[in-house]
Amino acid sequence: MAEVVGIAGEQLRQFVARIERLEEEKAALAADIKEVYAEAKGNGFDTKVLRTVIRLRKIDKAERQEMDAILELYLEALGMHEGAVGGEE
Questions:
Q1: Which InterPro entries match (predicted)?
Q2: Over 60: is that where the pLDDT of 63 sits?
Q3: Cα gap 45→52, rounded to integer Å
């Protein structure tokens, strides 16, 4: 039984070490991304909108079109569609 625990223990240590290394890499990448957003902001770009653009680019075209259609339907139901002035007709 000690042999099984030793083998499993070593494998577990390897998994933990790999996960820790990847977490460090993830933190470094997050810091790099934060710097890029700060640079974009420094150049006059709206980072909130930039984050939305990044999120939307991850969605496939058909899904995005469906979301846009539903959003337009909801806005129209609330009297907020583009033809409305001040959110009311």
A1: GapR-like, GapR-like_DNA-bd
A2: yes
A3: 12
Task: Give the CA dihedral 77, 82, 87, 89, nearest 10 degrees.
Answer: -80
For residue 56, give every residue at least 6 positions away whose Cβ sits within 8 Å of its Cβ, in sequence order, or none.
64
Q: Sign of the C-alpha dihedral, residues 32, 35, 39, 41?
A: positive
Give the count of beta carbons closer than 10 Å to the beta carbon of residue 75.
14
Looking at per-residue pLDDT, the higher value among 25 and 2 belongs to 25
Considering only CA atoms, give the Rg of the chain: 24
User: Whole-model pTM?
Assistant: 0.67
Domain boundaries in the chain? 2-45
Which burial class, exposed, middle or buried, applies to 50 when counting CB atoms under 10 A from its CB (0-12, 13-18, 19+)? middle
